[in-house]
Write a structure and sequence with these properties.
Distance between the termini: 41 Å
Number of strands: 0
Number of helices: 21
Strand content: under 5%
Largest sheet: none
Structural class: mainly alpha
Order of helices and strands: HHHHHHHHHHHHHHHHHHHHH
Helix content: over 70%
Radius of gyration: 22 Å
Number of domains: 1
Amino acid sequence: MIWLGSIFFLTLAMGVPIAFVLGLSAMGYFVFTDNLRFLVAIPQRMFAGQDSFVLLAIPLFILAGNLMDVGGLTQRLVGFANSLVGRFRGGLSLTAVWGSFLFGGVSGSAAADAAALGTVLTPDLKRQGYHEDYAAALIGVSSIMAPLVPPSIAMILYGALSGTSISKLFVAGIVPGALLAVILSAYAVWIAGRRGYPKLPPMGLSEIVRAAANCAPVLLLPVIIIGGIRGGVVTPTEAAAVAVVYALIVAGFWYRALSLPRLRRVFLSTAMMSATIYLLIGFAHVLSLIFAMERLPQTVVTALNSVSENKWVILLMVNLILLVLGMFLDTVGILILTVPALMAIGQQLGMDPVHLGVIVVFNCLIGFATPPVGLCLYVMSGVTKRPIEKISLHALPMVGLALVVLAVITVFPQVVLFLPNLLVH
């Protein structure tokens, strides 16, 4: 494991993309430990890891989200959120929070959420007198809700790596996502009151209904996904295919926003994103072979037990480790490296794998808003042209609130589990 860890951290420090970091680490391990015969297993393990019906859901959901995006869904979702919460103090900041929550039901991507809403909302926030760094931080931190709301690529990947029900994971992320939205809304209202940020003119019932009708086809997508899975009509992968067909109909015929050049961009973007994820998944299965050879999961469990056998102390250490990893690695990389050991820890503690999965994914998502590799903060820095360090300072209190939500879902499993136990059998 010394060779594996050394090559991993060296290549990571050199700025090598995480997919190649994993591949080079695996190859280096086999070479330097005189296990050259296992090099032939690399392509076999990679293809075996990618050959999964469940994993087909990833490119399909990415395609559905991209199709909806070209249909102008961002403006429609922002308009609907505005009609509901714009009348309150700091209404536009509340629109940013709840717009992120709604957008997550289509994209499943935190970075896409930050880029889309940042582009649309930042000029209006600045025009209404909001501090630009605060506005960028609010959108950046709010965007981490996106992968908690179905369809979530992170949940699919965790489910595929751990053998956990993806349909239950989808539903289990809704309440933590909504809880984060509520606590960020309270913070935004408090900041707005202190700084005197304006309210928006209240909209009448007819305007709210019109805004809801304008984005109803978009809002129906997560309902179709969950409803189809809950009713036993489709599997998560089949639900992804249904989502693509639905997105084509909505974007192409309802909103009339599709053209051949746009379709070309959609398919190219989907292919590039999917290829990156699949490459990571392939190398993950090579690493899983190394972890099994080195008995890493058992070693980690033994190490944690040597510190304490108390469940809450172990969970605290797991959360701290994941939070530190989130500062340097993306979600896919963290899941690939940690899920085998985490499943062993969860089994020892008697945890529901769905509960554990939401805790793990939530930890990874907080990393999107924490420097030095907070992707959503970098996205907002690019959108606003503001220094990343200033945005990060404004993001820290909101990251603290996200940690409060993490503590709640860790200590109280039913916050996560009551909805999937109610809806999914």
